[in-house]
Structures are given as C-alpha cells and as structure tokens.
Amino acid sequence: MLANGSAALLCALILFSMFAINVALGATGIGALIDDLGEMLMLLASTLFFVVGVLQREARAKTTQR
To answer: What sections of the protein cross the membrane (predicted)?
Structure first.
C-alpha cells in the first residue's frame, strides 16, 4: 500500500486541514465544532503523523541510496 510514509503524511494533512477549517469556522462567528482540548489533540496527532511520515521517508531514502 503506502509504505513509504505517504499514508502518515496524508493523515497529517487531513488532521491539519480539519484543524484549519475548525479555526476558520470559529473566526467567522459560525462557531467552532471542536473545543480547545480537541484542537490540541488534533494538532498533536497531526504532528506525530507528520514526524512518522518524514522519518519513514528518510529511512527509505537511506536504504535506496546505498
């Protein structure tokens, strides 16, 4: 499937997009769908997925370079 880190990076992109949409909704006055704790957890998960995806890509680049 997506073993080169693409799946983790895609999850990070989706989570960060959800966070950005939630912030935009809150800024326009419509009202945020997720509270502060949910936003923090979403950013934490997005960051973790991003780090995992980058590390997987670096590991694959090192093995294919040799």
So the answer is: 36-55
Instruction: Map out the domains of the chain as residue ranges.
Output: 11-65
Cα–Cα distance, 1 to 18 (Å, whole number): 24
Tens place of pLDDT per residue across the chain (66 aa): 566 889 999 999 999 999 999 999 999 988 888 999 999 999 999 999 999 999 999 988 888 876
End-to-end C-alpha distance for the chain, whole angstroms = 23
What's the one-letter identity of residue 54?
A: V
Q: What's the pTM?
A: 0.85
3-state helix, strand, coil in the chain (%, to 5): 80, 0, 20
DSSP H helix total and E strand total for the chain: 2, 0
